């Protein structure tokens, strides 16, 4: 029969623990339920008790979340569930290798960064290629990250202008019809004319 094991993790500040545990310990409860472990907090130490496989996965997820808290990121149930899912799918290398670098800072000083492994691959593709197609469900950060990368390139003087284009497909318009509003400050252009316009 497999014996119980225990590991200890340390964090620097009490604020990090509050961020990590979440409201009414909701974040910790997700980890405990997923890996069948018991997590106890004492002073600036977290103890994880359970069977070796579950403890190892919980430890890896907790280390990642502690590093997020140390960087000032707000830890949500979505973050915790994402890392737990990676650990359950035996993709712990993605949890460990998740880089802490950020794309840019907002006007309020908030860091914009990739929050999932897929977003990190997307950002790296934008850095390494001139043209990238981002395909995915609504709300997954495709446009937001692309705009953040464009603003970063503009700030770093890698480009001297940003051109926003979109297909003119709206109610009452025909597909491929390019409205003659290119002379105004708001450039609306159809996909068929986009390459001609960029040239």
From TrEMBL:
Location of the PhoH-like protein domain: 111-185
A Pfam cross-reference name: PhoH
Taxonomy of the source species: Bacteria, Bacillati, Bacillota, Clostridia, Eubacteriales
Protein's name in the database: PhoH-like protein
Entry's Gene Ontology molecular function annotations: ATP binding; RNA binding
Family designation: Belongs to the PhoH family.
Places the protein is found: Cytoplasm
First-listed, main subcellular location of the protein, grouped into a coarse class: cytoplasm
Keywords carried by this UniProt record: ATP-binding, Cytoplasm, Nucleotide-binding
Alphabetized Gene3D superfamilies for the sequence: P-loop containing nucleotide triphosphate hydrolases
UniProt cross-references to PANTHER family, sorted A to Z: PHOH-LIKE PROTEIN, PROTEIN PHOH
This protein's GO CC annotations: cytosol
InterPro entries xref list: KH_dom_type_1_sf, P-loop_NTPase, PhoH, PhoH2-like
UniProt keyword Cytoplasm, yes or no: yes
């Amino acid at each position: 029969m497999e014996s119980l094991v225990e590991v200890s993790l340390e964090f620097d500040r009490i604020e990090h623990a509050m961020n990590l545990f979440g409201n009414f310990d909701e974040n910790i409860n997700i980890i405990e339920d997923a890996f069948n472990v018991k997590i106890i907090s004492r002073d600036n130490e977290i103890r994880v008790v359970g069977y070796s496989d579950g403890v190892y996965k919980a430890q890896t997820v907790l280390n990642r979340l502690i590093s997020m808290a140390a960087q000032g990121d707000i830890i949500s149930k979505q973050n915790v569930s994402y890392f737990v899912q990676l650990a359950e799918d035996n993709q712990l290398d993605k949890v460990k290798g998740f880089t802490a670098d950020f794309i840019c800072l907002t006007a309020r000083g908030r860091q914009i960064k990739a929050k999932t492994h897929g977003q990190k691959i997307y950002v790296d593709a934008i850095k390494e290629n001139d043209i990238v197609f981002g395909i995915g469900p609504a709300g997954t950060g495709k446009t937001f990250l692309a705009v953040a990368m464009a603003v970063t390139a503009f700030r770093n003087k890698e480009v001297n202008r940003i051109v926003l284009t979109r297909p003119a497909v709206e109610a009452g318009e025909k597909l491929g019809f390019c409205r003659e509003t290119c002379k105004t400050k708001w450039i609306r252009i159809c996909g068929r004319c986009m390459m001609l316009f960029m040239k």
